[in-house]
Amino acid sequence: MSQLELKSEIQRLKEENNALILAHTYQNDEVQDIADYIGDSLELSRLAANTPHQVLVFCGVHFMAESAAILSPEKTVLLPAPDAGCPMADMADAETVREWRVKYPQATVVSYVNTSAAVKAESDICCTSSNALRVVRSLDAEEIIFLPDKNLGSYIASQVPEKRFHLWPGFCRTHHRVTVEDVEKAKNAYPEAKVLIHPECQPAVSARADFVGSTKQIVEQVGKLEASIFIIGTEMGIIHGLKKRYPQKKFYLLTPGLVCPNMKKITLREIAASLQHLEPVISVAEPIRTQARLALERMLALS
Ligand code: SF4
Q1: Quick check: do 3-84+263-277 and 89-171+289-302 share a fold?
Q2: How many angstroms is it from 114 CA to the middle of ligand 1?
Q3: Domain extents in the chain
Q4: Which of 12, 17, 119, 291 is least crowded, fewest Cβ atoms below 10 Å from its Cβ?
């Protein structure tokens, strides 16, 4: 089937199944173009929980579809590429979270949504890169176990010096490989550009940014700034949306290596097949789902 035929087939199947297509900002361009909504983890979690559609096609990675299944067990949540995982989420496991709780009994466990349902079930509250600061500041606890991203955790810790952080040693392979030299090189090439960087990058890299924020915050920040040239320090998928939204501005990726291979596993072909067969379905077994839901709902209540 051609791209055009695939698009019209997806449209037909979507209507037939009363389905909604949700795509993360890091998805392939053609997936973003046919999605009903494009957003970050927080926006997509909210949409998944509130939409009346019975079938959700989640174009992202496994933990995102799992969060939708946790919040909306009555819906059919499809992940068109079931092997699209998140290596950072795989760096945390429930048993070690329980061990850390014993080691730091006073600490509150804050899990980035980039975790499995089993880890969320062991957590007090979740956060995304958009609301991590608000979540941590809302807590009475003076001690925080932050997992699994040590880079996001370091960034939040630097903004909340009154709390003590125990940082999990996880990281995003895509963002972690950006170096200070990459930033210097990009700044030298475009001295008039503003540098916007995601907090999953290493602290020394984020420290050289004009702005540090989540994908949603980066998109908003571009709109607020007068500048016309931007160096973007997050996964390359974001550039597609930025160009569409701000056609008069120029965007350069901080480094060519900023690609998440898992986010690129979904294409129009997988979406059409997924809608046709209504699989692969992502679900979470009880009682983990109910426990994980508490941590997610505490986060959603704050944002
Ligand atoms: S970009 Fe990084 S954190 Fe996001 S899904 Fe890919 S590996 Fe995971």
Answers
A1: yes
A2: 8
A3: 3-84+263-277, 89-171+289-302, 174-253
A4: 12
Q: Which of 3.30.70.3460, 3.40.50.10800, 3.40.50.11540, 3.30.70.1230 would CATH assign to domain 174-253?
A: 3.40.50.10800
> Prior bond to 148 cis, omega within 30?
yes
pLDDT in 10s for each residue of the chain, 303 residues: 888 999 999 999 999 999 999 999 999 999 999 999 999 887 887 898 889 999 999 999 999 999 999 999 999 999 999 999 999 999 999 999 999 999 999 999 999 999 999 999 999 999 999 999 999 999 999 999 999 999 999 999 999 999 999 999 999 999 999 999 999 999 999 999 999 999 999 999 999 999 999 999 999 999 999 999 999 999 999 999 999 999 999 999 999 889 999 999 999 999 999 999 999 999 999 999 999 999 999 999 986
The C-alpha angle 208, 237, 173, rounded to 5 degrees, equals 60
CA 183 – ligand 1 centroid, Å: 20
CA-closest candidate to residue 114, choices 100, 101, 132, 141:
132
CATH architecture of 89-171+289-302: 3-Layer(aba) Sandwich (3.40)
**pTM for this model (two decimals):** 0.94
Does the beta carbon of 81 sit less than 6 angstroms from any atom of ligand 1? Answer: no
Do 26 and 174 form a contact (C-beta atoms < 8 A)?
A: no
* Phi, psi dihedrals of residue 105, rounded to the nearest 5°: -65, -20
Q: 257 CB less than 6 Å from ligand 1?
A: no
Distance separating the N- and C-terminal Cα atoms of the chain: 42
